[in-house]
Amino acid sequence: MARITLKITKPVDRTAPPKAPTSRARRALHRRALPNAPSAAPATPASTPAPTPRTAATPVQPSVRRGKPPAAGGRRGKEPTSKYARRAAPASATSPRTTPPGAATRPPRHENPDDPRLSKRMSELGLCSRREADEWIENGWVKVDGRVVATLGVRVSPHARIDIDPAAAQHQSEQVTILLNKPIGYVSGQAEDGHTPAMVLIKPENRWADDPSPTKFKPGHLRGLAPAGRLDIDSTGLIVFTQDGRIAKRLIGRDSAVEKEYLVRVEGTLSDEGMKLLQHGLTLDGVRLRPARVSWQNEHQLRFVLREGRKRQIRRMCELVGLTVTGLKRVRSGSVPLGPLPVGQWRYLRRDEKF
Predict the structure, then answer these.
(1) What residue ranges in 36-92 does DSSP mark as E strands?
(2) Which helix (H) or strand (E) holds 148?
(3) Residues near 105 by Cβ (< 8 Å), separated by ≥ 6?
(4) CATH assignment of 175-256+338-355, given 3.30.70.580, 3.30.1050.10, 3.40.710.10, 1.25.40.620?
(5) Fold entry, domain 118-173
C-alpha cells in the first residue's frame, strides 16, 4: 500500500512586521561595508531606488561574534578581503618569486637539442679540455655570439662564435707539463695493490739538474697534474704528466694519432709471418689493432712505433707471435724524445716543444 505524505504550508501574513536578516545576509552586508571590499560606483540621488519596507523597518549593524572583538584590519590581522577576492587577486608585482640560495640554475632551453654543449664544442675546437671549459664558463670567461655564458650545460650552434677572455689564456699559460723517466716498480696512475704511483717522484729534489726550462717549481704545479697515458709497472721510460687538457687530449684522446716509440727486449724466434702480423693483422679483445711500425733494433731488441695504447698492448702482441718480453722502454711521445733524462728524474716541457 502506498504511503501518503501530507505537506502543510503556513499562510504568509503580509501585514506582519519584517523579520530580522539571517546570519548569511548579515555577513554579506558586513563584507559590503568593509573599506577594502570591491564597491560599486556611488549612486546619485536620482538613481537610488526607494527602500523597501523590509530593509527600512529593521536597520542592521555588522555582526560581531560574542567575546571576540574584531582585530584591526580584519580577521587575525590579515587584509579583510573575501575568499573570492583572494582567489582572483593577481600576484603582487612588489614581491617577485625568487630562487632559494644555493639552488642549481638550470640551463635555458635550446631550440635544437642535437646541438653540442658549449664545453664539448670548446673541446672540439681545441680551445681547452672539457674540464677546463666548465671552469672557464663558471668564471664568466666565455662569450657566445657576444654574450657571456656562465651556466653549465648550455647548448650552442656549431656555427656560433666563441670568444675567450684573456684571463683564461693567462690561466692556461701558467699550466705546466712534466716529463718523467719512470723506473720499474711504479704504476703510472693511482696507487693500486700496494704499488707506489710515479707521481710521488715529482718533487724538487728529483728534478733533473740539466733541465733547460727556466720554470721555477711551485707546489701549485702538482695541483691537477695527471698522467697522459699508461706505462705498466714492469716498464720504464717516458711518461707525461700535465695540467693542460689540450695536451692530454692530443696524447690520449679517442682520435689521437700521436706516435709513441718503444724499445722492446724479447726472447724467442720471430718468423717473417710473425713480423707481418705485428705490423698489421693482430686483434686484441675483439678489436683489430691499427697498423704499427715494427723492426729489429738489434738481434735481441725490437723497435715499436704505435698510434694507440691499449693495456699491455706490446706484451700481448708479442705473446701472440711466440715472443716473451723481458724489457720495455718508451723513448718518445710525438716529437718529444726521452733523451738523456735519468731514470727516476723529471723535467718541464719547454715552450718550444710540441707533441
Answers:
(1) none
(2) strand 147-148
(3) 99, 151
(4) 3.30.70.580
(5) 3.10.290
And the C-alpha cell for 20?
530580522
How far is the C-alpha of 273 from the C-alpha of 294, rounded, in Å? Answer: 13
Phi-psi group of 344: left, alpha or beta (phi > 0 → left; psi -120 to 50 → alpha; rest → beta): left
**136 neighbors 164 (Cβ within 8 angstroms):** yes
CATH number of 259-333: 3.30.70.1560
Domain boundaries, the chain: 118-173, 175-256+338-355, 259-333
232 is catalytic: yes
What is residue 195's DSSP assignment? B
Q: Over pLDDT 70: what percentage of the chain?
A: 70
Give the integer Cα–Cα distance in Å for 223 and 240: 15
Of 145, 193, 232, 272, which residue is the catalytic one?
232
**pLDDT tens, 294-336?**
999 999 999 999 999 888 999 999 999 999 999 999 999 999 9
Q: What is the mean predicted confidence (pLDDT) over 174-199?
A: 89
Provide DSSP, 22-40: PHHHHHHHHHHHSTTS--P
Pairing of strands 196-197, 226-227: unpaired
- For residues 243 and 126, the answer to whether their CB atoms sit within 8 Å is no
What is the per-residue pLDDT for 56? 43
| Distance from the Cα of residue 64 to its chain's centroid | 61
Domain 118-173 identical in fold to domain 259-333: no
Question: Does residue 187 carry a pLDDT above 70?
Answer: yes
CA distances from 8 to 2, 3, 48 (A): 19, 16, 40
**Secondary structure letter of residue 261 according to DSSP:** E
* Inter-residue contact 259 to 306 (CB < 8 Å): yes
Grid cell listed for 310: 691499449
Strands (E), 196-276: 196-197, 226-227, 236-242, 260-267
